[in-house]
Structures are given as C-alpha cells and as structure tokens.
C-alpha cells in the first residue's frame, strides 16, 4: 500500500469518485468518530455469496433477495480513506489510479451521486394497501401459516434543492452516534444512505464474532430503564432470538455468550436487543462469520418465522421490490475487522427524489394502523436528515 501525502477531504474523494464513474462507500461505525471510505477503480461489482475470511478489503452491498436486477455487490478497496490519509492498495490498477488522482487534484465542485434508475421498482404502496397487507398477514398467522412476517413499504419524497450527500452523511453521523452510518454510490446501481441499528455479522480485531436479535419498537423515552414492553414486542423479539439460536444449532456451535434482551435507543425509537458473541480463537471455527451470514440472512427481524412461508408472503403481498432495503452492507477485512449491518432506516437517492424504506414485524397481536404508524416513525430517521436542508 502507498500513501498520497496531499491532504484530501471526504468530500474531495466522494466527488472525484462520482466524476470518475467509480463505486464508493463511506461509513462510520457506531460509537466512533472516524468516517472511513473506500473507492474501487475497476468496473466489476457483482459477486457471489460473500466469503468473509478470504475476501480482500472492501465493502459488501447485498440485497434482500438476489435477482438479475439486484445482485450481491462488492466495492473493492483500491483506495482507502481513514479520515486523514488516502491509502492505495498494492494491487490497485495503475492507469485508473493515475486518472483518479488527476480528478482528485482538479477539485471537483459538483455535489452529485450515481442516481438509481427511476423505474417501476419504485412504485409506492398507499396507506390502505399496507394496512390491507397487514390485515391479511394477521389472518395468515392466526391460521398458523407462519408465526411472524415483516411487512415493509417505501415512500418517495422530493429532495431539497440544497441536498448534498456528504453533508447528509455528516448530519447522520452527528444525529445518530450509536448507528452504523453509510453512504454507498455505485454506477449503474444507485446511491443509498442510512443509519442502521442492527448488526448482522461482525468480527472485530480480537476475532470476536457478534450478531444480534433486534426487534420490538416504541418511541424513545428519556430514561431507557423506564421502558415498558408489551407481550407483543417481547414475543416478536424472542422469535428473532430463537432464529439465531437455531442457526448456531445447525452449525453445532454451543459456546456462545448471550446478553439480553435489553432496551436500546435507535434515533427517535427504542428496540429490544439480545447480543450473541463468540470468541473465534476459543471455538476454533474460522468460517463462522461466512457460515452464519449465509444462514442468518434474511433474519426474522426483516423477513419472518418460519423463513420460507414469511418470504413467500412478502413476495406475494408487499407489492414492490425491496431491492437493497433490508439487505446488508458494510466493510470487510478493514483495519477494524468486518462489520456487516442490516440495511435499515435508509433511503435511496434518485436524481431529484429520495425513496425512504421501513418495515414492521407483524404477529398475531398486530394492529394494522399501529404498524403503519411504526413505519412512519422509522422513516423519520431519514426525514429528519432531509429536513436539515430546508
Ligand atoms: C424492519 C425494520 O426494523 C426491524 C428492526 C428492528 C425492529 C423491528 C420491528 O419492531 O418491527 C424490525 O424487525 C425497519 O426498520 O425497517
């Protein structure tokens, strides 16, 4: 790896990536201050099932369900920005690196992004459509076709004239210190930003594997110790826990540490969360990250339980393509390890509009109107950021 001694800002790097038609990912891990970024110089982004242990450094961006249109993507870290320095990978293609550095030095002024294509993918469900789907889901659960299903929707809103992706990212980082903050922009694919509260799979520098069961939602109270949870949310979260435990069981892994459920804050909301950790050095299970990722996604926090009937219900009744919402994203084999988060509390950027995404866990005790309200509250996480631009 080589280090360019000139001082660049995150904005310089993002703008150069957009001007040069490069894929770029920017992220900030929870409870840290450093905003990191990586840029891929080549044009091949599609990848198969992520293999975490053997992957080069980069950033995965994977959909809820893979299809021809929504593939697993990988932004290889040809260039890495750690908040101060720009570092080049030893195998970065020399010619493309040269052109990129020229673009950087020219100081691009344009605050744009690789827009998502404005197609039928972005049809939005009406309030009545969502409520009808929830009503059908409750009936299907009562008929014992499944125990839980997560139904979601999207909503298009006009982007403010002054909108800037890097300014929005910085606002997210300041507003949501406990969230995983991200901005991903890929030519021909689109641009997504979000503030996720949910780890899917993470492996830190000490080789500690971490996943979590996050579910149950209510608006935040000042003191989390005062939070009172209804039976509905307790059961909803317990199902996610049960699902994670079933994945450990499939891998015959018994040596995990479980803490929770406890109440956690996520922006304007609170959730119930149970953390599961495994010391990979103790269990001698080097592929646990890859194996769990394959088993976990999509978890019952975004799909349902049992997984298959819940998935079929979603595909039949949601009425739109989730695309990369409720997929997963994050850096792999970086200086802080591998950190894949569920793509929640997010939005997709078209040229002049943002598409906000949110879902809610439906159980037999769900009230359709309340579930609609819950998706409104979840969309507030991104609305809040857009409102900063007036
Ligand atoms: C599906 C979403 O949230 C999940 C994560 C936490 C709580 C959830 C819930 O209470 O329904 C969802 O399972 C979303 O934010 O779009």
Automatic annotation (TrEMBL):
- Keywords for this entry? Isomerase
Q: Tell me its family.
A: Belongs to the isochorismate synthase family.
**Which reaction equation describes what this protein catalyses?**
chorismate = isochorismate
- Chain ranges of the Chorismate-utilising enzyme C-terminal domain: 127-378
- Name the Enzyme Commission number(s) assigned to this protein: 5.4.4.2
Q: Does this UniProt record's set of keywords contain Protease? A: no
Q: Which organism is this protein's natural source? A: Pontibacter korlensis
- This protein is called what? isochorismate synthase
Question: Looking at the keywords, is Protein transport present?
Answer: no
Any one GO molecular function term: isochorismate synthase activity
In terms of Pfam families, this protein maps to:
Chorismate_bind
Q: What class of enzyme is it?
A: isomerase
Could you tell me which InterPro entries the record lists for this protein?
A: ADC_synthase (IPR005801), Chorismate_C (IPR015890), IsoChor_synthase (IPR004561)
Highest taxon, organism lineage: Bacteria
